[in-house]
Amino acid sequence: MNELKGMGVALITPFDAQGNVDHEALKRVVQHQLDNGTDYLVVLGTTAESATLSAAEKKEVISTIVETNVGKLPLVIGIGGNNTRVILEEIASTGLDPFTAILSVSPAYSKPTQEGIYQHFKAIVTSTEKPIVLYNVPGRTASNMSVDTVVRLANDFDNIVGIKEAAGDLPAAMKMIQRTPDDFLVISGDDMIANAMTLAGGAGVISVIGQTLAKDFSEMIRLALAGEVKASYNLHYKVADSIDLIFEQGNPAGIKNMYEHMDICQQHLRLPLVPVDEDLSDRIKSFLNRTYLKS
């Protein structure tokens, strides 16, 4: 799965002022990735506000991204949730040909045991021949996938090819790297420790900040994969302040605000999410002016 080494981005879904999907803005978002070094695109992940999209809207979003990408970058589709049966139905009803893999988030809200998490992913992986990337994000799911569960899944199923590890726990990520098969991809889902995880033997990142600051963040990951410690950290520290900013009032509110300052899309969200406040917006704009727009 070398296509999934490097910097993937968790694409947003732009909306217009009436709350409809803004497909022209989505095309600009995808084109920004094509022009600035992104290695692969994640479609309909949690950053895409996929929980608030209808089935019809999801199909339209997929169509716009596939048509704009025109096969240039590998695509990963997010299909996950806390109802295993519904996930299996969605996988069966989704046209998966354009996609290299499925990114599937560990169940939220239900707070399953580690055995429940294992059986959930066993059901998913045995329902499809598509490669599966696990997604551990306990800050959203209220349930952490243990290292033992990840190692067990990685060893038991050949088409579980990696994990997006977003617990923000570098020691746990290092244990995953150490204990999983050599070809298993441990991908950072936390932008702040993406460089460290990659230098420790990880496969890169599925990033949020990387979709706006794509050129520097993708280069940082390429340098880290090559073992260029100093050069990769120089770029990490250039970007680092913006990572704190975009997550301060939630994702994707922060990254959409940054996109608006870059004139790529507007910052509209769907409730219950709301835009960042004026103070944070000013600080995001100041970062861009100071670091990028006037450099």
TrEMBL record:
<dbReference type="GO" id="GO:0008840">
    <property type="term" value="F:4-hydroxy-tetrahydrodipicolinate synthase activity"/>
</dbReference>
<dbReference type="GO" id="GO:0009089">
    <property type="term" value="P:lysine biosynthetic process via diaminopimelate"/>
</dbReference>
<feature type="binding site">
    <location>
        <position position="47"/>
    </location>
    <ligand>
        <name>pyruvate</name>
    </ligand>
</feature>
<dbReference type="Pfam" id="PF00701">
    <property type="entry name" value="DHDPS"/>
</dbReference>
<dbReference type="InterPro" id="IPR020625">
    <property type="entry name" value="Schiff_base-form_aldolases_AS"/>
</dbReference>
<comment type="pathway">
    <text>Amino-acid biosynthesis; L-lysine biosynthesis via DAP pathway; (S)-tetrahydrodipicolinate from L-aspartate: step 3/4.</text>
</comment>
<keyword id="KW-0028">Amino-acid biosynthesis</keyword>
<feature type="site" description="Part of a proton relay during catalysis">
    <location>
        <position position="109"/>
    </location>
</feature>
<keyword id="KW-0457">Lysine biosynthesis</keyword>
<dbReference type="InterPro" id="IPR002220">
    <property type="entry name" value="DapA-like"/>
</dbReference>
<dbReference type="InterPro" id="IPR005263">
    <property type="entry name" value="DapA"/>
</dbReference>
<comment type="similarity">
    <text>Belongs to the DapA family.</text>
</comment>
<feature type="active site" description="Proton donor/acceptor">
    <location>
        <position position="135"/>
    </location>
</feature>
<keyword id="KW-0456">Lyase</keyword>
<feature type="site" description="Part of a proton relay during catalysis">
    <location>
        <position position="46"/>
    </location>
</feature>
<dbReference type="GO" id="GO:0005829">
    <property type="term" value="C:cytosol"/>
</dbReference>
<keyword id="KW-0704">Schiff base</keyword>
<dbReference type="GO" id="GO:0019877">
    <property type="term" value="P:diaminopimelate biosynthetic process"/>
</dbReference>
<protein>
    <recommendedName>
        <fullName>4-hydroxy-tetrahydrodipicolinate synthase</fullName>
        <ecNumber>4.3.3.7</ecNumber>
    </recommendedName>
</protein>
<feature type="binding site">
    <location>
        <position position="206"/>
    </location>
    <ligand>
        <name>pyruvate</name>
    </ligand>
</feature>
<keyword id="KW-0963">Cytoplasm</keyword>
<comment type="subunit">
    <text>Homotetramer; dimer of dimers.</text>
</comment>
<comment type="function">
    <text>Catalyzes the condensation of (S)-aspartate-beta-semialdehyde [(S)-ASA] and pyruvate to 4-hydroxy-tetrahydrodipicolinate (HTPA).</text>
</comment>
<feature type="active site" description="Schiff-base intermediate with substrate">
    <location>
        <position position="164"/>
    </location>
</feature>
<keyword id="KW-0220">Diaminopimelate biosynthesis</keyword>
<dbReference type="InterPro" id="IPR013785">
    <property type="entry name" value="Aldolase_TIM"/>
</dbReference>
